Amino acid sequence: MRKIVLTEWVTLDGYTAGPENDMNFVAEAFDEDMGVYESSIVETGDTLVLGRVTYESFAGAWPARAEDPRTSEPEREYARTLNAMRKIVFSKSLKSADWGDSLLLRDIDEDQIRAFKQQPGKDMLIYGSASIVQQLSSLGLIDEYQLLVHPLFHGGGKKLLEDKTNLKLVSTRQFKSGVLLLTYQPRES
Fold first, then answer.
1. Whose CA is closest to 56, among 108, 15, 104, 22?
2. pTM (2 decimals)?
């Protein structure tokens, strides 16, 4: 069975974005070491699970980067990988999802997600999309949480999770930038 794996940048106080959707903390800490991690995580998946905001951001950036000579070769390869992946997009307002192999869904249906997980293939990856993460987490559908914890407190903004979520730590890794990768799985009740 495929897993749903969340990979998410968060601050020490649990925010995925600061006030006014500020995500500068990601770019400030991003280095070659983190780029290697990002490339390796996309190799474990064949499907992206995205909300509207993340989908529009990715669809607006990655297709063009795949062949842009001003973009580094590792980033072009990362773009090609993202472009080739299936995308499951949850949005009530998008009229269409035209980036590569995209499936637009209006609502999260627990049975449908479980059916996706039963299909053959690699893992399903979630980037960003906090509202989708909150819904999938509350349904117990996320199998792994890979949190890239940045050494800063935002003091406000968009929380990753609003509800109590009981997890167990399965691995840690420290990047040169001071960012910690904490990998968790749901704790059995």
1. 104
2. 0.92
pLDDT band of 189, cuts 50, 70, 90? low
Helices 32-43 and 73-84, axial angle in degrees (round to 10): 30
Q: Counting Cβ atoms within 10 Å, is residue 168 exposed (0-12), middle (13-18) or buried (19+)? A: exposed
Rounded to whole angstroms, the Cα distance separating 28 from 31 reads 9
What Å distances lie between residue 178 and 147, 154, 174, 181, CA to CA? 13, 16, 6, 10
Distance CA 31, CA 72 (A): 13
Per DSSP, 98 falls in state -
pLDDT bucket at 121, cuts 50 / 70 / 90:
very high
Query: In Å, what is the CA distance from 167 to each residue of 88, 91, 124, 140, 149?
Result: 25, 28, 19, 11, 15
Name the class of domain 4-9+34-120+141-179: alpha beta
